[in-house]
Every structure is written in C-alpha cells, then in structure tokens.
Amino acid sequence: MRICIAQTAPIKGDILKNIENHKKLINLSIQNDSDIIVFPELSLTGYEPELAKELATTKDDKRFDGFQKISDLNKIIIGIGLPTKNENGICISMVLFQPNKSRMTYSKEYLHPGEEDYFVSGTNLNPITFKNNKLAFAICYETSIPEHSEKAFKNGANIYIASVLNSTNGVDKDINRISDIAKKYKMVAVMSNLVGESGNYDCAGKSSVWNNKGKLIEQLDGNNEGILIFDTDTEKIIKTQLKKQPTTR
C-alpha cells in the first residue's frame, strides 16, 4: 500500500483557494500511484480558532464534490482537515473521501488545552480497512493520549496516521512520541504537518514516515510544501518538495 502525506501552507480562511492547492498535491500523489493522501490539521482553513464558527461546514458541502470525484476515478482515499459543525458545536475534523463510498467524518476527541474555548470534543472513527490494511487516524494532540493509540492497536490497526499542526517549538517532542507509538504497537506511522504561519504558530513542517519498528524512514523539510509517499510493502519512498508559496493573512 502506498501512503501519501501532504505538507501544506494554508491560506488563512480561504477554503476555495486551499481546495485548489490540495488538488495539485492530490494529482501529484495520483501520478505516483498513491492509495491514500492525508492533509494536516485544519488544512482547508488554516488553524484559525477565531474563524472556526464562521468557516465550519459539513462533509456534504458541495464545494468538496471534486474530492469525491477524484477519489472515485482514481481509487484513492483523501483526508482533508476542516472545522465541522454538529448539534453540539464545532469540531476539529478530518473528512474522508473513499472510492464509491459515503463520506466519513473523523472528529478530534481529545482537545488541546485552550481549544475548548472554540471547539467541542468530537467522535473518532474506528480504523478503516483498505487493501488488507487497517488505518487508524489521529488529530494532533490525540497522539499524546496513550489511550488513543492503544485503542487503535486493540482495534487491529497496522497503520497510524496523524494529521497535525506542530510548531517549531513542539515538533521534535511529537516526532519522538509518534516514533514510540510505531515501535510499541508495531504499526507503520505517518505525520502530516503544516508549514508557514497559521493561528499565530510558526508551523514546523517535518512531515514524517516511520516503519513498524519506529525507525524514521524519511522527512520533509521545515519550509516547503510537498508530499511524501511510503510503500508499506517495499519501504520505498517518493519525496517531492515544492517551492514555498507565500501565505496570505
């Protein structure tokens, strides 16, 4: 299976422009036969809690129909980050587009301290099965909750996919933590992070891939957008870095 993680520099609050940027990276991943591509936390809006209520939507938003068409035509899973709304409030979520299936929403259950001022705790999805693999997801702070990764393991996951915003001050701690998760539970692990400024954070990039022994296989840099593709069967890596795009704030 070929897992692709995307590293993006979001344009603050501009969903349509971020959609177009996502599609460019998705096309790159398709050219390299990826089975799944996952974007960072709140990738379609940037990490902008003060704007979350204004920007929040649902998985069935017509603006996302293009992602479903790409998924259906190319047999690829696409995971995008955005704030979603439900009866309880606004969640930090990942919407998953699967080939010829209904869209699914994975919402962050464990909020980082301070996020509860803008968001409510959501509902995690159980691991999903694709090409004989079980894929478990995590959004940022959830990687620091031992019960979260333990539950993924107990539910049979062999691939752990973290969609994050990590700042330059915190990224190395999280890199070590996800490496430990991969090693402890013998899961392939990947981390998709933002670059540039978002939500007053200096985002660190360094999107990474670990094998199921916890060994760091490859990492993107701290400045540029790009994709990293990992073949779980051969451990072959395809790495594409793009010239840094200016961020509009």
UniProtKB/TrEMBL annotation:
Keyword Hydrolase attached: yes
An MF annotation (GO) of this entry: N-carbamoylputrescine amidase activity
A Pfam entry, by short name: CN_hydrolase
InterPro entries in the record: Aliph_Amidase/BUP (IPR050345), C-N_Hydrolase (IPR003010), C-N_Hydrolase_sf (IPR036526)
Protein name in the entry: Carbon-nitrogen hydrolase family protein
Residues in coiled coil: none
Keywords for the protein's UniProt record, in alphabetical order: Hydrolase
The CN hydrolase domain, residue ranges: 1-234
UniProt organism field: Flavivirga rizhaonensis
Signal peptide: none
Listed PROSITE patterns: CN_HYDROLASE
GO biological process, one term: putrescine biosynthetic process from arginine
Entry keyword annotation includes Hydrolase: yes
